[in-house]
Design a protein that fits this description.
Layout (H helix, E strand, L loop, with lengths): L1 H16 L1 H43 L6 H7 L1 E4 L13 H4 L2 E4 L26 H17 L4 H6 L1 H7 L4 H18 L2 H12 L4 H28 L3 H30 L5 H13 L13 H11 L11 H36 L6 H13 L3 H28 L3 H5 L28 H33 L1
Antiparallel strand pairs: 1-2
Helix pairs in contact: 1-8, 2-5, 2-9, 3-16, 5-8, 5-10, 5-11, 8-10, 9-10, 10-11, 10-15, 10-18, 11-14, 12-14, 14-16, 15-18
Length: 473
C-alpha cells in the first residue's frame, strides 16, 4: 500500500512540474515515429528485394542462345530480405550490405550498405528504434529521475519520512516503480512491433525474449538512476554524476570496445587482402587459357581416362573441363580466404561484445541483434549460402560448356560466334534463392550470454540500491 502511494505521488509530482511529462511524451513520440518510419522502410525494402530477386532470376533464365561462359560472366544477383524484427533492430545490415552480385571466378562483397561509407558518428544520425531505446531512453530516464531522492533530501522531507517510520525500501521501490513505468511507456512501440512480428510469422519465444531483454534494460537504468540519486546529496551532483555515467556507459565504453577489438584481433585491410588473394590465384593458372601449364596434369588425366591421344579426340570439350576444374580450385582458395576473413570479423565482434560486462548498452545491443536475426553470424551465413548458389550455377554452366559444345566449335568461336552458342534451355540451372533468419532455438542460444550480462547488471544495481539504503540510514 505504501509503495503504491509513493508511486502515485511521484507521478503527481512529475505531472505538476511538466518537465518529466514532457520528456516522457517526447521520448514516446520519438520511438513511435522512428518505429513507423523504420517499419515503412523495412516493408518497402522487403517488397523491393523480393521483386528484384524475381526479376534477376527471370532475366537470367530469359537470356538467348549464347556461349555458356558468357552466362558465367553475365552473373546473377541475390538479395537478403530483412527479418521481421529488423523494424526495431536493423543490426549489421546497414553496414554489411544486403545484396551480392554472383559471377564466375570471383566472390564479390555484399552491396548497398547505407552506412559503410559514413562517418564514425553515423550512429547518431540514424534514429532507428533500437538506437533510441539503447542510447536515448536511458538519457530520458536520467532527466526524469535524477532528483527522485535528492529533492527529498534538499527539501528535508526525507528526514521527516524517516522520523515517521517509513520503510526506506518502500520509499525506494515506490519511486523505482514510477521510474520504470515511465521507461516502459517509451517501450510501447517495441511491444507493438513485437506483436506485429508475431502476427507476421515470427516465433512468439523470440518476440517475448526480445521485449523481455529491453524491459530488463529499462530496469537496470532505472536502478542506476535511483541508486545515484539516493547516494548523492544534491540534485546537481546527482545529475552531473548520471550525465557522466551516460556518456561513459552509452558512448565511450562501446566505442572503446570496438577499437579494442580491432587492436586485439587485427585484420588486414581490403587492399592488402586483395593482393594476397591475387598472389595465390596466379599459382592456379588462367582458366580462360586451356594451354596454361597449370592444366597439363588435367590434360594427361583426361587423355588417359578416355584412352585417346589428342584433346580433339576427347568426347568432352577440354576447354569446358578446364573451366570446371579451374573454378573448383579457385573457389576452394577464395573460400579459404573468405572463412579466414569471417573468423577475423567474428573474433573482433566477440571481443567487443565482452564489453557488455562493463556497460549494459553493449549487452542489450548484442542481445538485440542476436534475437532479431540481424547479427554478424546471420550475415556470414548469407555470404556462405550466396557463395554456394554461385558455385552451383557456375559449375552447372561449365558442365554445359563441357558437354554441350564441341571443342572444335569452341576454339573457332572468335571467327564465327554463331557456332559456339548453345540452346537457352541450358540456362535452367539456377536455383531460387530465399534467405531465412536463423531458427528461434539458434537465436535464443546465441543471445543467452548477453542476457546473462544484463542479469549481471541487474544484480549489481540491486546491490547498489542496498548500499544506498544503508547510507541513508
Amino acid at each position: 500500500m505504501a509503495i503504491n502511494q509513493i508511486t502515485r505521488d511521484e507521478w503527481r509530482f512529475w505531472h505538476r512540474t511538466k518537465l518529466a511529462a514532457t520528456i516522457i511524451i517526447i521520448g514516446t513520440l520519438l520511438t513511435i515515429v522512428s518505429a513507423i518510419v523504420n517499419t515503412n522502410e523495412m516493408q518497402h525494402a522487403t517488397h523491393e528485394r523480393e521483386h528484384l530477386q524475381h526479376t534477376s532470376e527471370s532475366r537470367f533464365l530469359e537470356q538467348p542462345d549464347r556461349h555458356p561462359h558468357r552466362m558465367v560472366h553475365y552473373g546473377h544477383y541475390v538479395f537478403r530480405t530483412p527479418s521481421t524484427l529488423s523494424i526495431i533492430e536493423p543490426g549489421v545490415d546497414a553496414f554489411t550490405g544486403t545484396s551480392i552480385f554472383l559471377e564466375g571466378h570471383r566472390q564479390n562483397s555484399a552491396m548497398f550498405s547505407d552506412q559503410r561509407q559514413a562517418s564514425g558518428m553515423t550512429r547518431f544520425s540514424s534514429l532507428t528504434p533500437s538506437f533510441l531505446l539503447q542510447v536515448l531512453v536511458p538519457l530520458f530516464i536520467i532527466m526524469i529521475g535524477y532528483a527522485s531522492i535528492t529533492r527529498e533530501k534538499e527539501a528535508g522531507t526525507l528526514d521527516i519520512m524517516i522520523t515517521q517510520g517509513i520503510n526506506l525500501w518502500h520509499l525506494l521501490m515506490g519511486k523505482y516503480i514510477a521510474l520504470v513505468s515511465s521507461g516502459l511507456l517509451m517501450l510501447l512501440p517495441l511491444i507493438i512491433a513485437a506483436i506485429w512480428a508475431t502476427v507476421n510469422g515470427e516465433s512468439i519465444m523470440i518476440t517475448s525474449a526480445f521485449v523481455a531483454g529491453y524491459v530488463l534494460y529499462i530496469l537496470v537504468w532505472s536502478g542506476i538512476v535511483l541508486a545515484v540519486s539516493a547516494l548523492s546529496s544534491k540534485n546537481s551532483a546527482s545529475f552531473a554524476t548520471l550525465a557522466c555515467l551516460w556518456i561513459v556507459l552509452c558512448i565511450l565504453i562501446p566505442r572503446i570496445g570496438s577499437s579494442s577489438a580491432a587492436a586485439i584481433a587485427p585484420s588486414p585491410g581490403k587492399l592488402e587482402a586483395d593482393f594476397a588473394v591475387l598472389e595465390e590465384l596466379r599459382k592456379l593458372g588462367n582458366g580462360h587459357d586451356a594451354a596454361d601449364p597449370a592444366f597439363e596434369q588435367l590434360k594427361k588425366n583426361l587423355l588417359e581416362k578416355y584412352d585417346v591421344d589428342n584433346i580433339e579426340d576427347l568426347p568432352i570439350n577440354f576447354r569446358g573441363a578446364v573451366s570446371q576444374y579451374s573454378e573448383k580450385k579457385l573457389t576452394d582458395l577464395l573460400n579459404e580466404f573468405a572463412e579466414k576473413r569471417m573468423d577475423e570479423e567474428l573474433s573482433q565482434a566477440q571481443i567487443a561484445r565482452q564489453f557488455g560486462w562493463l556497460t549494459p548498452t553493449t549487452a542489450i545491443r548484442s542481445f538485440s541483434m542476436m534475437i532479431s536475426g540481424t547479427s554478424l553470424e546471420t550475415h556470414h551465413r548469407f555470404l556462405r549460402e550466396a557463395e554456394k548458389l554461385r558455385f552451383e550455377f557456375v559449375q552447372s554452366l561449365n558442365q554445359v560448356h563441357q558437354d554441350a559444345l564441341s571443342y572444335e566449335d569452341d576454339i573457332n568461336r572468335y571467327t564465327d560466334d554463331d557456332i559456339a552458342r548453345v540452346d537457352a534451355d541450358n540456362w535452367q540451372v539456377l536455383s531460387s534463392f530465399s534467405f531465412e533468419p536463423d531458427t528461434a532455438t539458434t537465436r535464443l542460444e546465441r543471445s543467452t550470454a548477453y542476457a546473462l550480462q544484463l542479469l549481471f547488471w541487474a544484480i549489481g544495481v540491486g546491490l547498489c540500491l542496498r548500499i544506498a539504503v544503508r547510507r541513508i540510514r
